[in-house]
Amino acid sequence: MRMTTHPTAPPRRTTYQEVLAEPRFRLLFLTRSVAITADSLRITTFSVLVFAATGSPLLSAVSFGAGFLPQMFGTMLLGSLADRMRPRALIAGGYLLECTAALALALLPLPLAVSLALVALVALVTPVFNGASARLVARWLTGDAYVLGRSLNSMASSGAQLLGLALGGAAVAALGTRQALTVAAMLYLAVAVAVRLGLPDLRPDGQPSGSLVQASLQGTGTLLRARDPRRLLLAQWLPSAFAAGAEGLIIPYAGQHRFASGTYALLMACLPVGMLVGDLIVGRLLRPHVRELLVTPLTAVMGLPLLAFAVGPGAGTSAVLLLLAGTGFAYAVGLQQAFLDALPAETQGQAFGLLASGNMTLQGVGPACFGAIATAAGTGTAMAAAGGATLLTACWIAGWHSASPATTRTA
């Protein structure tokens, strides 16, 4: 989808309707949304299953994190597959693997260690087929349509995670944990079939050279050594990691301040709701050049409201602060085109996988780091520290992004 404008006119805004009119993107968008719902359902239900079997909060937390932390290793060791294999087979095969894993957890009496290893194995390959999917989006959508496509995917991800959590609770209550895992497996199977039947069978862009692991390690090293991709990766990783650190403290913050029962659920929903609102406003109402100019201010918006937690705001004020902080996530919309422009064409799939897996990994590390601060200084102080770290990141981005947008382009 290519948009043409008069050379002297500002780029016109593409609409979400125009983006969704591209049938191949629409298929990827819908199947990925369903798969994220299934992810949320599978991960949370498996965590409940582990806790019911062991009574251990630690093992339950480990089972939850096993679906995220291995993803970075998968990108480093297998990431080049996203550019070396036919994307249709890779994406459909990834969903089939997730279906098989969910069925195994639901139907087989596996030892806990084997169950955790299975979840970790799926997490290891997840960035590979997600990277292949993101590379197809970059092929089929160009210019502002690509930016809005990424924005739509971000909004759908937030909504699908919330739906998956709600569906998980309802399915466990109505059917039981193992039957709920079977529901997740059926969702994965449905999207695998849809991808297999609906996507064209394209040849890979990259040409195999050397071993898979060697090529993947070299590709990751190249991306992290190059200044522009490295900056843009960090700019998308760090603020979300700091926000996740604050989000991970919402429940203990509500408990320590003796908020009414159930208030923590409302507070937990505020960040993703704010993300949806921010992405919708920035993506739908603002022109491309304005989005790029707002990268630094919106990053600051993520951090500023969190500073107020140092003084211990009440439940209502906390909800407003978290909602405002969530809208700041829209800063990433203004970085999408620059990130795509900075990537070598032959490693786009691996780069998108690295972006996603780095986000997942650091969002797992963030709560642990700020949890340690909370142990020493209190939850409110730790949440404020997360806000301060986000503001420092905004200052760093301002130093290289706002001054000269050309610095985010490759020669």
Kindly describe this structure.
The structure is a single chain. By secondary structure, this protein is an all-alpha fold. The chain has two domains: 14-209, MFS general substrate transporter like domains (Growth Hormone, Chain: A, Up-down Bundle); 226-411, Growth Hormone, Chain: A, CATH 1.20.1250.20. 78% of the residues lie in helices and 0% in strands. The chain has helices at 16-20, 23-54, 57-65, 71-78, 81-84, 87-107, 112-140, 144-175, 177-198, 212-225, 227-247, 250-256, 263-285, 288-293, 295-307, 315-327, 336-341, 348-377, 379-402.
- Rg calc: 21 Å
Instruction: Output mean pLDDT.
Output: 84
The biggest sheet, with number of strands, parallel, antiparallel or mixed sense and barrel status, is: none
Number of helices: 19
Please provide the ordered H/E string of secondary-structure elements.
Answer: HHHHHHHHHHHHHHHHHHH
**Helix content class:** over 70%
Q: Architecture of the largest domain, according to CATH?
A: Up-down Bundle
The number of E-state strands comes to: 0
Structural class: mainly alpha
| Terminal residue distance | 24 Å
Sum up the overall morphology in one term: globular
Query: How many domains?
Result: 2
CATH topology term of the largest domain? Growth Hormone, Chain: A
CATH homologous superfamily label of the largest domain: MFS general substrate transporter like domains
